[in-house]
Amino acid sequence: xxxxxxxxxxxxxxxxxxxxxxxxxxxxxxxxxxxxxxxxxxxxxxxxxxxxxxxxxxxxxxxxxxxxxxxxxxxxxxxxxxxxxxxxxxxxxxxxxxxxxxxxxxxxxxxxxxxxxxxxxxxxxxxxxxxxxxxxxxxxxxxxxxxxxxxxxxxxxxxxxxxxxxxxxxxxxxxxxxxxxxxxxxxxxxxxxxxxxxxxxxxxxxxxxxxxxxxxxxxxxxxxxxxxxxxxxxxxxxxxxxxxxxxxxx
Length: 250
Fold this sequence. Notes:
GO terms for molecular function: phosphorelay sensor kinase activity. Keywords: Membrane, Transmembrane, Transmembrane helix. By secondary structure, this protein is α+β, with helices and mostly antiparallel strands. It has a domain at 74-245: Histidine kinase-like ATPase, C-terminal domain (Heat Shock Protein 90). It has helices at 2-10, 15-20, 24-75, 78-94, 96-116, 124-139, 164-174, 213-227; strands at 122-123, 146-150, 159-160, 184-191, 195-201, 232-235, 239-245.
């Protein structure tokens, strides 16, 4: 039928003249076929877009679950728990009051982890409080070997990915030597009013545990998903710095 319309135009007749000469039943068939073809094409396009969207959501959910699993696995690290219980065991006999404070901070740390790990963001003030509690548990085993410095000008009204700062602090503690003469100094500070950084002096040791790159890689993926930006890593001979974006409340 389309060929007939084309020929009618070439021969000087209008498409309307040709259409008027078509039997009504053929015209109905032509219009019905065109409608079915258009509808079928639209359905196929819609279904393909729907499956693409579902696949993308599934991938994002898988990456989010992977990050949450890695975070939980890191926090329920048997070495950390064993060392914490060892510290607690000695404090029970030497300083019961300090032992009670230690228990409270240990319980609070795990409560924060379980309550906030599934969330996309948490208030920066809450994350900083969690980091201080986590660092306190480590510092009791050697106060003069570790130092945590937090910028007082940090915008605590901002938000951040949960457990992100703690992960970076943990990496610094895990992969650097620390002595009284050469303490490990970890600094948390504001960068360009939009990023927050965790920086430490490099005193690398050969760790027997897995490399932290898996945790850092998962964190980078989550930052990209939630913030649409990348984690920034700056490394020199003396310092190691990781910067992650802050999320401003609207």
